[in-house]
Amino acid sequence: MVxxxxxxxxxxxEAKRQWLAHGWTDAADGMTVVTSVMRAQQLLLxxxxxxxxxxxxxxARYEMLRLLAFSRAGRLxxxxxxxxxxxxxxxxxxxxxxxxxxxxxxxEPHPHDGRAALLALTPAGRxxxxxxxxxxxxxxFADPGISRDDATELVAIVARMRKAAGDFADPRxxxxxx
Length: 178
Description:
The protein is mainly alpha-helical. It folds into 2 domains: 9-55; 57-170, Arc Repressor Mutant, subunit A (Orthogonal Bundle), CATH 1.10.10.10. 61% of the residues lie in helices and 7% in strands. The chain is built from 7 helices and 3 strands. The chain has a 3-stranded antiparallel beta sheet with strand order 1-3-2. A hairpin with a 7-residue loop joins strand 2 (105-109) and strand 3 (117-121). The longest helix has 28 residues, at 25-52.
């Protein structure tokens, strides 16, 4: 949650000071990286959640709708949604059930695999995701709180971290800025 008033001292800088004071010198920078990224994620998610609240969407639900809207036909196999969102199949199934309940997507039989299902965007889902995307673009994505140059550098740094962790093998396709 975003504070209405800034703290007088950066708690992460104080945590690093404590790490160093306790002799954990080799781990101090890493602890600071991890806690800084986690705090930044909290701050960004609070902005995203506040922006999506009028649309009755969580970020997980928004991501699924946006993914389906980006697909050529507005539909994807459940397995493709799992792979592209990089979340567990149970999470995708649960999110999909809520979106089906709200008539934002429908489940369709897979045309070639009787065991698989397709998730398909409804017209109401497409309308909602377009409105939510416009709000996110205006209220969050157009100004994430850092300069364009810092954003480019941060994305490149995090991409290297993700690649080193095995998140992906090749950064292509990628925006030219990386």
